[in-house]
């Protein structure tokens, strides 16, 4: 193996390892990041604020619950909340679901979103 191929292979392995560690997220950091979300969203089942409760959100279809008035755009989205769909939505809610009612500009940092989602997965079972 040539030096350049070895260097490229090593870089790929290191980047892959960083992605795996990054994808796991830090729930303690995510809990702090969730404070911004808490202004509108509750962690308690059936307790809605300006936004719906996020209790049990993973695995649920978007706008599925009857106890909150969702935007027509979110109702039509067809999204099922997974870590991947939550990541896309948290990054840019208006890009992911144009015309949704959530007045949030998004969380551009992928690490922040990974940490937030890891926290959410632990809390919103």
Structural class: mainly alpha
Q: Which architecture would the CATH scheme give at its second level?
A: Orthogonal Bundle
Uncertain regions spanning at least 5 consecutive residues: 3-22
What is the share of helical residues? 40-55%
Can you say what the CATH homologous superfamily is? Answer: Cytochrome c-like domain
Order of helices and strands: HHHHHH
Anisotropy-based shape: globular
Number of helices: 6
Q: β content, as a range?
A: under 5%
- When the domains are counted, the total is 1
Number of strands: 0
Q: According to CATH, what is the class?
A: Mainly Alpha
Give a concise summary.
The chain is mainly α and 125 residues long. It contains six helices and no strands.
Blueprint of the fold:
Blueprint: H1 3-24, H2 27-38, H3 72-76, H4 83-91, H5 93-96, H6 110-123
Helix pairs in contact: 2-6, 4-6
What does the model show?
The chain is mainly α and 125 residues long. It has a single domain (26-123), classed as Cytochrome c-like domain (Cytochrome Bc1 Complex, Chain D, domain 2). It contains six helices and no strands. Helix 2 (27-38) crosses helix 6 (110-123) and helix 4 (83-91) crosses helix 6. The radius of gyration is 17 Å and the shape is globular. Residues 3-22 have low confidence and may be disordered.
């Amino acid at each position: 193996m040539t030096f350049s191929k070895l260097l490229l292979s090593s870089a790929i392995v290191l980047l892959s390892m960083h992605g795996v560690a990054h994808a796991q997220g830090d729930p303690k950091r995510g809990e702090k990041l969730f404070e911004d979300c808490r202004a509108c969203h509750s962690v308690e089942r059936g307790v809605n604020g300006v936004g719906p409760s996020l209790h049990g959100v993973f695995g649920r279809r978007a706008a599925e619950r009857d106890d909150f008035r969702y935007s027509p755009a979110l109702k039509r989205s067809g999204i099922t909340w997974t870590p991947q769909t939550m990541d896309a939505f948290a990054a840019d809610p208006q890009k992911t679901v144009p015309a949704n009612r959530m007045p949030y500009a998004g969380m551009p940092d992928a690490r922040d979103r990974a940490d937030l989602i890891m926290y959410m997965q632990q809390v919103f079972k």
